[in-house]
Amino acid sequence: MDELIQTSNADNRAADVEGALSLWQALLTFAPLAISALALRAVIAPLVGHPVDIHTFITWGRSIASEGLGHFYDTHPQCDYLPGYLYVLWACGKMAAVLPPTFTFLIFKLPNLLTDVGIAWLIWRQVKPTSLQKRLVLPALYLFNPVIIFNSAYWGQADSFHAFVVLGGLVLCCRRRFTLSALVLGLACAVKPHSVLAVPLVIVMAYRQQLGIGRLLACCVIGAATFLASFCGMTTVSTLPGFAIDRVRITMEMYPFASVNALNLWYAAGKNWVKDSTQLLGFAPIRMVATALVGGGALLLLRQLARTSANVANQYWRVAAGLFLLTFFCSTRVHERHVYPAFALLLCAAPFWRTAFYAYALLSVTCFVNMVMAWGYVYTSPPSPQLGPNAITIAICLINCFILAITSWRSEFKWAWCERFCALIRTWGNRTVRTISTTTALSLLSILIIAFTMRIVHLNQPESRVFDEVYHAYTAQEWVRGNVDPWRWDTSAPEKSCAYEWTHPPLAKLIMARSMRLFGINAFAWRLPSAIAGTICVLLVFLLAIKLFDSAAIGLLAAGFMSLDALPLVLSRTAMNDMYCVGFVLGGALACLHRRHFVAATLIGCAIACKWTGLFALPLLVVIRFQNGGESILQRPIRWGLAVVGQGLLIVLVYLVSYTPFFRAGNTPADFVELQKRMWSYHVGSNLKHDGSSKAWQWPMGEGTLWFFSESFDADPNPSNGLASYPKKANIYAMGNLMIWWAGVGAAAFCIIRVASKARSPLVIAVFGYLVFWVPWTMSPRIMFIYHYMPALPFLYMLLAWSLVKAEVDVRVNRTILALAGLVLAIEIPFIYGLPIPVPWK
User: Burial of 593 by CB count in 10 Å (0-12 exposed, 13-18 middle, 19+ buried)?
Assistant: First the structure.
């Protein structure tokens, strides 16, 4: 018997050691992801954030730290927060009292930055694949979600802390630790009252696990006691229950509206900022209808969990996400951020339920747009319940309804559109690639969503014209107003700060004008086509790379590099002609690779009709044709020559067609010829000077940063929160992502050496594309700017991606490069979006 006991003890010690080693290995695996996520947030967090919320938190935290919690609600009767988060603010206030004011914003955002990582850790520990590395995908999706970063690192809200406590309680419940789960969820209810949604879920799980009624009641008592205990520092024990109920009532009645900027059912019904006591269709208050919808929907969801015979964990996390989505969409008094816990819950469901990925992606888009619109509400004077164009807001409401439907639906949703998307990528990417996986297609879709989101957010800011928008956008605006003077070189603009833009062909400006006819004459309208063109360029880079190199990895890396580079992002947010030209050039090259030569000619004609830089694409098309079928060219030179002449004539025809409005304005062919001569004289003129000009040889190393916009803001002479106030300055610069550009220079040199030893290779096309759009500028007589480097960059991204993949670089190195590129972009974001920065930080 003693031997058995000793053996058992030895086995237990071995298991403990194995568990400790497993945990240590997990920590080491998770640490790089956590550190990179925190580093990114640490760069963003010192920014001011939401003009109301973060300053309110700072005021509360300093008040609690100096006066204590006992009389806080007496001095701040309108506080709509329960004590749970006030204890966190007390700790932040204590830290802020001993650290310099420069760290104040970082300190008060720090709890949510840390809980972001905590949520990712909990998600990671829920996933059970064999490889620790594979498990990092889900926490990475959470940590680098723009919604999560924007909310915690920039906005400075408390939603991350709340989601962490809720998720912790649900994880404990899933692991059958019901007592601890009750305690943690009681604390969650003390942070935000809608945490109570998790309580019936835990009760159903307890029923499924056959927990005794006595223990279940004990757990309920523990949860309630924890909630009440959070109020102990603010009142006496005898008045504790009444005080707690009163504070919950005040919290719930602070915003008695059907929707508080949440794009949900009630916003779609036109009830944003309308009191929920309003009669709906004359028979019942909105609040009563919402309660019935939420109650009935919750019962149906919980019934699914109670009666399921399938994987309980699958249904558990799906139903949990469904409850928060249901409340967000159907309940009243809901803010745009109240859907926040659903992000973590959907990722917990993802290993068991594939549809969760799609719901997560869609929710990320709709929530981000909703948050940006709600942010803009603060700056609207007077505030308007209409957050944006009806077409956009109602579409988002419908998408949110769709997300709720697929989350609540028991069966696996059939994503026919996703399969069609994969088929489209296979067709246009490379006809030899037959097995592009759904994962690749979804990865590309994620990159495109991120790229478009970065280009579209706050696109209307600044509302004034940026850099050459005083020429391009102004000219398009005048065309919309019916003014034909901008077509001529011998007329002057009435606005002194603007000028008519006739030095470039008109197609890009005509597209801007069409956008302004659709959306009105405003900054959003004249920049929107550039944002769309920039996103399409990301897709075209992927398609070109996969066609050239027959590798999904190269395509995804190249598209990822373009989405993380600063220069295409700035140009996509500015109404100039560069992104139009680049998009048509890439489309023409792709069509030529597919041997659709007349389509290629049409697209290159459009590129030249946007900017004469498109002429550099002509030798690129010749190289592509030689690489694709040089033997047939030599065998049939006459046929090939006629085809080339036909394509050349088509390019000329497209260019001439772009000037149709010029001739309709009463100008003659002689005027057209004179205009082209003056355009040529302007571009080759050696007497032009500009402080921001640079030389072409400087661009690959990132030199030649160009100032686009600047605006100064005075310091607040009487800051309400007691913080030191500094004057601020907003700047926008055209610049590159040095991580990508410097690595790209090395990759380009490596590829040029490879091409020299192997002339017939798809790599030749990428190398030639890079050189043909950069080298001619080194010999140009005109003044040059860093944005002239833009057409060469897509080929640089492909060369860098090819080098990393074909050189068999460790996948961790690729991830590190992408992470560093993302970090560099995060540092540059204030100077891309024109965010006001305190002058001392400059």
Answer: buried
> Is it the case that residue 273 has pLDDT exceeding 50?
yes
The confidence band for 68, taking pLDDT boundaries of 50, 70 and 90, is: confident
Q: What does residue 717 show for φ and ψ, rounded to 5 degrees?
A: -70, -25
Model confidence over 189-233: pLDDT tens digits?
999 988 998 999 988 888 888 777 888 888 889 999 999 988 887
pLDDT-based confidence at 815, cuts 50/70/90?
Answer: confident
Mind listing the pLDDT tens digit for each residue in 92-108?
Answer: 999 988 888 878 888 89
CB atoms within 10 A of CB 2: 6
> How confident is the model over 393-420, as pLDDT tens digits?
888 899 999 999 888 875 444 445 555 5
Give the distance from CA 513 to its chain's centroid.
27
Q: Which residues contact 567 (CB under 8 A, 6 or more apart)?
A: 734, 735, 736, 737, 786, 787, 789, 790, 793
Q: What 3-state DSSP class applies to 56?
A: helix
Q: Is 84 helix (H, G, I), strand (E, B) or coil?
A: helix
Domains of the chain: which residue ranges? 255-410, 423-688+736-837
Number of alpha carbons in the 13 Å side-chain half-sphere of residue 694: 20
Q: Are strands 334-335 and 259-260 parallel, antiparallel or unpaired?
A: parallel
- CB neighbour list of residue 350: distance below 8 Å, 6 or more residues apart: 138, 356, 357, 360
Q: 52: exposed, middle or buried (C-beta count within 10 Å: 0-12, 13-18, 19+)?
A: exposed
Element (H, E) at 260: strand 259-260
User: Which pLDDT score is estimated for 328?
Assistant: 94
Closest C-alpha among 590, 515, 573 to residue 787: 573
Q: What share of the chain is helix, strand, coil (3-state, %, to 5)?
A: 70, 5, 25
How would you write 574-587 as a 3-class SS string?
Answer: CCCCHHHHHHHHHH
761: left (phi over 0), alpha (psi -120 to 50) or beta: beta
Q: How many CA atoms lie within 13 A of 369 on its CB side?
A: 24
Query: Are 716 and 722 contacting, i.e. CB atoms less than 8 angstroms apart?
Result: no
> What sign does the dihedral 658-660-666-667 (CA atoms) show?
positive
Six-digit token pair at 127? Answer: 């996933």
pLDDT of residue 490: 83
Do 370 and 336 contact (CB within 8 A), yes or no? yes
Sign, CA dihedral 210-216-219-224, equals: positive
Specify the amino acid at residue 1: M
For the CA atoms of 70, 74, 76, 77, the dihedral, rounded to the nearest 10 degrees, stands at: 130
